[in-house]
Amino acid sequence: MTDLPGYPSRRNFLKASAAGVALSGLAAQAKAQETTPPVPLEDYDRAYLNADEWAFVMAATARLIPSEGDGPGAIETRVPVFIDLQLAGDYGSADDWYMEGPHVPDAEPARGWQTPLNPAEIYRKAIPVFNAWCEQTHGAAFAELEAEKQDAALTALQDGDVALEPEIRDFFSILLANTKEGYFADPQYGGNHEMQSWVYIGFPGARAAYRAWPERHNEKYPLGPVSISGERA
Question: Smallest Cα–Cα separation from 131: which of 143, 113, 117?
């Protein structure tokens, strides 16, 4: 089709429009990268945990992945936020699990989830029991103990030296698993703030073009990680 004199070419118009859309997309993507800093953990509006439970989770995760290690700790990566949000969601309520009885809470762990309680209920029942044990054994609730006694208390909990009812006996393993998940999960779930743990271990995240790298041994990956939402570290 011949363009009319004095009027813009239809082809050029479409090219310019496509370029404008592309630039707009880039601008929107760049704007999306400008995230506002999250509220401090002490000001965080909890979704499930009450004040005592929050204090425990803050203190316990800080000892499981301490800040004084080589990489970022659980507090820097906001693991407590991840746990709180998970307990408030489908995981905490075991929404898509098969939870019908009969239950055998004292069965061997290899038989899987045998307690009638969901994860949120286990946290709610186990934390007061463990805090009471800490008060009796060490003179204060877990969050109020010094780090050395906190480590000793967590070790006792892990080793089964804290008397827990069968329904909540797996509390430590659940807490430890949730702490690891919050540390390494995608930031959209509340933990791994700014992908700090991914940066620390050199994990690329959700990068689409990574297929050429798994077989490159002892070669440092030059690019930072990308989250599922497109956030870049």
Answer: 143
Strand partners, 205: 226
Structure-token pair, residue 53:
């439970």
Mean pLDDT, consecutive 10-residue stretches, the chain (233 aa), reads: 47 45 44 70 96 98 94 97 98 94 87 92 98 98 98 98 96 98 97 96 87 84 90 87
Are 127 and 56 in contact by the 8 Å Cβ rule? The answer is yes
100 burial type by CB count under 10 A (0-12 exposed, 13-18 middle, 19+ buried): exposed
What is the reported pTM?
A: 0.82
Q: Which residues have C-beta within 8 Å of that of residue 103, sequence separation ≥ 6? A: 114, 115, 116
Find how far residue 207's CA is from the centre of its chain.
19
Residues in the chain: 233
Quick check: 138 and 127 in contact, CB under 8 A?
no
Helices 119-138 and 51-64 sit at what angle, rounded to 10 degrees?
80
**Helices within the chain (DSSP H only):** 10-33, 51-64, 79-88, 90-93, 119-138, 147-159, 171-184, 196-201
